[in-house]
Amino acid sequence: MTVKEIATAGVKDTRPEPFDKEKLRMAEARERWVDRTPPVQVAFPEDGTRTIRAPHNDDSGHTMRLGDTFGTRSQEFLAIQLTELSAAVRTRGHRDATAQQLNAGIAFVAAVAPQDELEAALAVQMAGCHFLATDLIGRAVGADNLAHAQAFGNLAVKMQRTFTAQIEALGRMRGKGQQTIRVEHVTVEAGAQAIVGDVHHHGSGRGGYHQQSKGQPHATSEPTERAALLSPDPLGNGVPVPGDAERPVSAPRGPKPRRSARKQERVQARPVQP
User: For residue range 181-206, what is the model confidence (pLDDT) as tens digits?
Assistant: First the structure.
């Protein structure tokens, strides 16, 4: 019975008025309610037939709104999905869903906002999984014995896990599973170098230095001067870095002859016997 019917019937509402804070909350909720786009709804004829029709006289516009809700222009795909959705949200033991149940399923699909037929099919499955999980939870709560409660509870948990997997699959389809790492700030101390990009080090075998590929702009074949590294000294003294100052150099050692060369000389020094 609506408020208008209560007023016309002469029945006085004895309930107290809401508090001032509650009136403010209701005013804010009313603004958000108006800003929300209401989902499209369907209606059934009063003669009892199951033909889905618009609640107004613009059938063409109503079909376009349904197609936009399911992310498709195919009327055949739309009709099949509405039939499957009606079978998924109906009450257990009933052949068809009511207009209220079907409109609730359509609102669920509208919340998913599918962009194509594949996402619409997944949205219909998600709606059926949700309604089945809640039905199993209710049956588990109302079970008369522990065995039935445990069976219904286990099935409900499976449906809930499936529902979570469906949400993750929808996110992967829409590219939400990809992660992008962005570097906002880079701090470079005095005397240090910063390289942005992929750096590959290849050992050259000469002098113990690592040479980079010549095609990279940061490649270099000579060691560059770097800042002093911190040592394990408790006072925090730095490790000395070679500079340009002149220092005494130890006497060079002459190269040692190779063993193979000495063997060759001894072989040549021996007389050849006939």
Answer: 676 666 766 666 666 655 555 555 55
Give the chain's mean pLDDT.
79
Question: In this predicted model, what pLDDT tens digit does every residue of 105-116 receive, in sequence order?
Answer: 999 999 999 999
pLDDT digits (tens, 9 = 90+) for 4-22: 665 556 678 889 999 999 9
- The tokens describing 94, both together, are 């009933």
SS3 sequence of the chain = CCHHHHHHHCCCCCCCCCCHHHHHHHHHHHHHHHHCCCCCCCECCCCCCCCCECCCCCHHHHHHHHHHHCCCCCHHHHHHHHHHHHHHHCCCCCCCCCHHHHHHHHHHHHHHCCCCHHHHHHHHHHHHHHHHHHHHHHHHHCCCCHHHHHHHHHHHHHHHHHHHHHHHHHHHHCCCCCCCCCCCCCCCCCCCCCCCCCCCCEECCCCCCEECCCCCCCCCCCCCCCCCCECCCCCCCECCCCCCCCCCCCCCCCCCCCHHHHHHHHHHHCCCCC
Q: How far apart are CA 82 and CA 65, in angstroms?
A: 13
Specify the residue for token string 């990279």. Answer: 216
Q: What is the mean pLDDT of residues 223-248?
A: 57
Q: Which residue reads 């099949």 in tokens?
A: 80
